[in-house]
Structures are given as C-alpha cells and as structure tokens.
Amino acid sequence: MTENTESTESQFETGTVVYDPVSDNVGEYRGKAGPYALLRPLGGGREWEARPETLRPASPGERLSAAVRAANSRSFQGQREPASPVPVRDCAACADLAALRDDARARHDGSAETDADVLLRRHQLRYHAALLGLREYALVPDASAGAEYETACTECPAGSGARPGPADVEEWQRGHTRETGHTRYRRTVADYAVLASR
Ligand SMILES: [Zn+2]
Ligand SMILES: [Zn+2]
Questions:
Q1: Cα(172)–Cα(159) distance, integer angstroms
Q2: 2 near 31, Cβ under 8 Å?
Q3: What is the pLDDT of residues 103-142, one digit of tens each?
Q4: What's the CA gap between 189 and 78, in Å, rounded?
Q5: From the CA of 125, how far away is ligand 1's center (Å)?
Q6: Minimum-distance ligand to the CA of 122?
Q7: What is the reported pLDDT for 80?
Q8: Nearest ligand to the C-alpha atom of residue 178
Q9: pLDDT (tens digit, 9 = 90+) per residue, 19-62?
Q10: Rounded Cα distance, 198 and 184, in Å
Q11: Cα dist from 74 to 56, 96, 192, 196, whole Å
Q12: How far apart are alpha carbons 141 and 190 in whole angstroms?
C-alpha cells in the first residue's frame, strides 16, 4: 500500500478477520482509507468502510460462520434452499450433523442451526446424491482445505482455533473447563467443497 500514513497507523495486519459491530458483519481488514478502515467480505465481494475504533478481531465462531456463509453463497449463488435436510439412515456423518443442528435449534441459536443445515446438505450432496435424487450438482472436496472443527467458550473469549478432528476439540474443552470452570461451548464444524454443474 502506497498511501501516506502520517498518524494513521494500522491497528490490524492486512488480512486479519475482524468484527464490525455497526454492520454486524465479519470482514477481512484491508487497511486504512482516510479515517475509515476498509473491510472486505470473506470470500470476496465489495469492500465496505468501517469505523476503526469499533473493530475487534472476530471470535472463532464468528469467523467460522462467516466463512460457511461465504462458501454457501458462492456454492448456491443465492438460490433458495429447501427445508432442513433429513439425515440418511445408518450414516454416522448425517447423524452427527443432524445432532449439531438439533442441538443448535434447542439452544435457539439460529445461525448455528443454519450452519449445520448447510453442512448436512453439502455432505448429502457429496455422499448421498444418487440415493436422494440430487443430481443437478457434483460436489467435490476442496483439495486446498480439509474439514475444520472448532469450539469457542461462550463464557469468555477463548477458543480452540480450527482443529483437524472432533477429538482435538473435546480435548481443548476439557482442558479449558479444568482451568476456568467454564462449561458452555459453541461448537462448529466446517468443510470446504467445490460445487460444479454436471
Ligand atoms: Zn450421510
Ligand atoms: Zn472460558
């Protein structure tokens, strides 16, 4: 960046994912533009100007659900999605994701519920497309990114960060509970896939 930065030192490194409370949105910090901070939506799109003093680094949960939303809007390009998918019998992955979804619903956590539905639908497109008659798209795992499991304490800002498996996340939770006595967590799972027309 070649702009003149006399007293406008950047508060975040470029690329930091931050939460903007004014727009209630998560974005990637791109630098300063005059008195404003320039933020870009995760997954691309039009940048917006935010008030720098209100920004803070996004929590793991906020980062993850913004990434899932971005991946979802890329994949489905704004198409209206059907109602909650039904788990396929005897599929452990379906059962896990449906349990996450039901758990979120029981907690009245609408955004976690949507995330779980997105993941369940994507999993079903990938593994049960023929069985369920889902033939319009082929989903392939994104080779550049594996699945991520993450948990965030809802009683303090601590979070596990993205981890490769659910067991790693549980281990982190047990440690955090031992250290702090905190017992409530928001757990998320994300995978990355590329959706292509057949
Ligand atoms: Zn399944
Ligand atoms: Zn905590």
A1: 9
A2: no
A3: 999 998 888 888 898 899 888 888 887 777 765 556 666 7
A4: 22
A5: 9
A6: 1
A7: 46
A8: 2
A9: 998 888 888 898 888 888 988 887 777 788 888 989 999 888 88
A10: 43
A11: 26, 25, 11, 11
A12: 12
Q: Are 96 and 68 in contact (CB under 8 A)?
A: no
Q: How many helices (H) and strands (E) does the chain have?
A: 5, 9
104, two tokens: 């979120």
Rounded-to-integer distance, Cα 156 and Cα 148, Å: 21
Identify the nearest ligand to the CA of 90 by its number.
1
Distance 154 CA to ligand 1 centre (A): 29
pLDDT in tens, 145-184: 778 899 999 999 999 998 888 899 999 999 999 999 999 9
Judged against a pLDDT cut of 50, whether residue 6 lies above it is answered with no
Q: How far, in Å, is the centroid of ligand 2 from the Cα of 169?
A: 14
Interval between CA 140 and ligand 1 midpoint (Å): 15
d(CA 106, CA 115) in angstroms, rounded, equals 14
Cα 13 to Cα 143: distance, rounded to the nearest angstrom: 27
Which ligand is in closest contact with the Cα of 127? Answer: 1
Do residues 29 and 55 touch, judged by C-beta distance below 8 A?
yes
**Tokens standing for residue 75:** 């994949």
Collect all residues with Cβ–Cβ distance below 8 Å to 187 and sequence separation of at least 6: 100, 149, 150, 151, 169
Give the residue from 74, 81, 64 showing the smallest Cα distance to 150.
Answer: 64
Q: What ligand has the least distance to the C-alpha of 131?
A: 1
99: confidence class by pLDDT, cuts 50, 70, 90? very high
